[in-house]
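Obj: model holo form, ligand = magnesium ion.
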Amino acid sequence: MSEIIGAIFDLDGVLVDTAKYHYLAWKRLAAELGFNFTEKENEQLKGVSRMRSLEILLEIGNIHANEKQKEEWAQKKNEWYVEYLNRLDKDALLPGTEKYLEKLQKHCIKIALGSASKNAPLILEKLHITSFFNALIDGNCIEKAKPDPEIFLKSAEAIHLQPKECVVFEDSEAGICAAKNGGMMAVGIGSQEIIPGADLYAANLSELCNKKFLLEG
Ligand code: MG
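Output (holo structure tokens):
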């Protein structure tokens, strides 16, 4: 196995807890459209692009719409989501985020973001963690959604590393598949039952701070 010298992070569910705000904004849209949207149903939207999320929501509500209408609803949801993002504070950081990024940086590991979110730069700025990243690849830079490996291949390229030199940290099954499809090592943030296929699992980054993984020497 090659030496791992690059770390690629998913954002929502790995570094920050923004899933609840996505949920509240989608729930508000569902209410406007006349149906209830549960937290359990929301699980299907994690790690999925904005437009695909909307399509899943409309399938749940049994609502049909043309492309123009879908664009309008997606935009509306995003405006509500951004309202929440503008009020974000450090409480939104998941356990261990800053400590682990600091440790990796200290060990000269290159760090990239590989997030499906088009709001990723705003979230990093709000939480003052932008400076940890050597490269940012987000929903604005990609054409194919996870499990296609495009996002992580572009992330590796942006930090000038081969895929086999990188490890991906992910909380979604599609994301783990994307990493493996790209020839990278994958760390699942969560449990094997919910996100199968990773090479290693941790409940959060705080757990990894205390392990030797990537941090020897
Ligand atoms: Mg995620």
